[in-house]
Design goal:
By secondary structure, this protein is α/β, with parallel strands linked by helices. 31% of the residues lie in helices and 24% in strands. Strand 9, helix 7 and strand 10 form a beta-alpha-beta unit. Helix 1 crosses helix 2, helix 2 packs across helix 3 and helix 10 packs across helix 11. The longest helix is centred in the C-terminal third of the chain and has 19 residues.
Length: 614
């Protein structure tokens, strides 16, 4: 029986290396299909020690640096997952703070890279031998052209970890690391604002793993993970949980899956994985792009936990995926819906395994008034909502009025507040934002501190339902609107429009908030698009949004496929999209504005066809 009582992630890996030295822990599939490398527990432990010893030899990396351990960037491409994992644990073993980040691809990403170096006062960057010269030269070139960052950042030291000799492992000096020590910074996605460095401790990660095990006590963990390891879902659920379970996970690049989604499901089938998942869009991608001839021998019967998180869950996605892949052994109850965020390390709430009651229906009009009224599926004005399960073991979740800071009555919509040892407690060197986000106290009892998620939701039968983002809420014609609802309405208005590929936001026009819809056109429809069809699509969006939601669209921007601003995990960056719209830099196919002569009077809509019946 493996022990699961540890003081640090160092203790965790060391324990597994001692008790299961020759067992595989991670295998990487080149191009998502061919095994190109693997780690046993012992090999990973040894390589981590060698990297740690190298770090300790070139700097006082584990000593105080302004009161904190040295910060080290991890800059690895998606096809270097094994190198990334070794470097990550090398930082842990050295007592350093790891900062996972993607190799920058353009000037905007280099600016973000520079921001992280400056904010975190980074002295070292770890990468692969194949990339080190290119990254170092590109960084110096960008820095020379930029006036926003101190030129002393040129002194950033780069180390190719795959060039370090394994014999260095014997030089590693173990440091005392406890649960309160910082393990890494997890940057937020930037979907709602400037990315921030969330401080994640060894204890936060270990508690998340413990909570997961308690929530799914009978799960025999064998995983397939294609999610970026720079993302909390890939890092904690894919890597840390594997080591905690003492089992094995197969890794592949997200690029391989984006190019051919069948590779993901084939890997689950081939390796008889019990655990694998991704954001909601990944399941839509499988439905839309996998062809029957690609999966003739597919067997998904071993899949026990199909995680769905990191972005809003769409009930229709669950039904479409189940319908298409049920003949291959997939079961509807395998879907595991959860809710979390970077500030929570990973998960705040999650359902029970093999639970089919994940989708409920509420009255849409009542929901806009922040009331929850459960209705039948076929009732007019119903809206499907997905349960994200009860609070994870060890966590506490409350629904709070964001203005009065008093708990909401039962079946009311409010801000989601959470407590738990697995949750982070701060941003790095951002005291004001830390206080606003991590130090919520109830006004009537002074109970706290709570993590204020900024998300809206409700609790019904002890299960959490997420309805939207507090900052994204819009008010048109005196009514509250969630962007997700308007986006779904737009996407369903015409067959030429892509799913999970729209953004709804408001702009101020002559002192009045007006609705803007930015929407991608489907790649197949794009080939046949002409001016007549463009006019038809714009008319369909206008008419459908007006008739179904009783709100007028002020502007519509139609985009080419895969050009809507999103995070790499698939979250729509509505704020960035709005900024680009206002700056006129969206790569639109067509942009339409409602002529002043056609604008409606919200006090008199009865002249519109069908409005009285709607």
């Amino acid at each position: 029986m493996l022990s699961n009582s540890f003081n640090s992630l160092i203790d965790l890996l060391s324990d597994r290396a001692q008790k299961k030295p020759e067992d595989r822990v991670f295998t990487f599939l080149k191009d998502g299909e061919i095994e190109s490398g693997f780690f046993t527990y012992q090999a990973l432990d040894r390589e981590a020690r060698a990297i740690a010893a190298n770090l300790q030899s070139v700097t006082s990396v584990g000593d105080a640096c302004g009161g904190q351990s040295q910060r080290v960037l991890l800059v690895y491409p998606f096809n270097a997952s094994l190198e990334f994992i070794a470097a990550l644990f090398g930082c842990f073993y050295a007592g350093a703070i790891a900062i996972p980040t993607r190799p920058p691809q353009n000037s905007e990403e280099w600016a973000d890279f520079g921001f992280r170096i400056q904010e975190c006062q980074v002295g070292f960057a770890l990468t692969s031998a194949a990339l080190i010269d290119k990254l170092q030269n590109s960084w110096l070139e960008w820095l020379t052209q930029s006036s926003d960052y101190p030129q002393e950042n040129k002194n950033l030291s780069w180390i190719a970890t795959d060039g370090i000799s394994l014999s260095d492992a014997s030089n590693w000096q173990k440091r005392k690391i406890d649960r309160d020590a910082i393990a890494y910074f997890q940057y937020t996605s930037g979907s709602t604002g400037t990315p921030k460095a969330v401080v994640i401790t060894h204890g936060n990660v270990l508690q998340q793993c413990t909570n997961y095990r308690q929530a799914l006590p009978n799960l025999d963990y064998w995983g397939v993970n294609w999610l970026p390891l720079t993302h909390d879902l890939g890092l904690v659920a894919g890597i840390m949980q594997t080591i905690y379970a003492g089992n094995s996970t197969v890794l592949m690049s997200p690029i391989a899956v984006f190019q051919n989604p069948s590779r993901w499901l084939k890997a689950i089938s081939t390796y008889k994985a019990t655990v694998s998942g991704g954001p909601n869009f990944a399941y839509d991608m499988c439905v839309q792009r996998i062809k029957p001839e690609q999966i003739t021998d597919l067997d998904l019967s071993n899949w026990q936990v199909a995680g769905n998180g990191a972005e809003p869950v769409r009930p229709q996605t669950l039904e479409r995926f189940t319908e298409l892949f049920a003949p291959y052994g997939f079961r509807r109850e395998v879907f595991y819906l959860s809710y979390g965020m970077a500030e929570a390390t990973l998960v705040i709430s999650g359902g029970a395994a093999n639970d089919t009651s994940t989708v409920w229906f509420v009255d849409e009009q009542a929901l806009q008034q922040k009331r929850v009224v459960m209705v039948g599926k076929d009732q007019a004005g119903s809206r499907a909502v997905a349960s994200c399960g009860p609070a994870f073991p060890g966590n506490r979740v409350m629904i709070v009025n964001p203005e009065t800071l008093i708990p909401c009555p039962p079946d009311s919509v409010g801000e989601i507040w959470a407590q738990g040892l697995g949750l982070s407690s701060s941003y790095w060197q951002r005291p004001e934002e830390t206080e606003q986000t991590f130090q919520g106290y109830l006004a009537d009892s002074n109970d706290g501190p709570f993590l204020r998620t900024g998300d809206l939701g409700f609790i019904h039968n002890d299960e959490l339902f997420v309805t939207g983002r507090l900052k994204d809420m819009m008010i048109f014609w005196g009514r509250n609107f969630y962007p997700q609802l308007l986006e779904q309405t737009s996407e369903n208005s015409h067959p030429a429009l892509s799913a999970n590929a729209s953004a709804a936001f408001s702009v101020n026009v002559e002192g009045e908030e007006r609705l803007v819809i930015v929407q991608e056109v489907d790649r197949h429809a794009l080939r046949k698009l002409n001016s007549e069809q463009i006019a038809e699509i714009i008319g369909a969006i206008r008419q459908t949004v007006l008739m179904q939601q009783l709100v007028e669209v002020y502007a519509i921007a139609l985009l080419k496929p895969a050009t809507l601003p999103k995070t790499f995990s698939g979250k729509v960056q509505r704020r960035r999209c709005r900024e680009k719209f206002l700056a006129g830099t969206l790569p639109f196919i067509e942009q339409w504005f409602c002529p002043a002569s056609e604008r409606l009077d919200p006090t008199d809509l009865t002249s519109l066809p069908g409005i009285e019946e709607a």
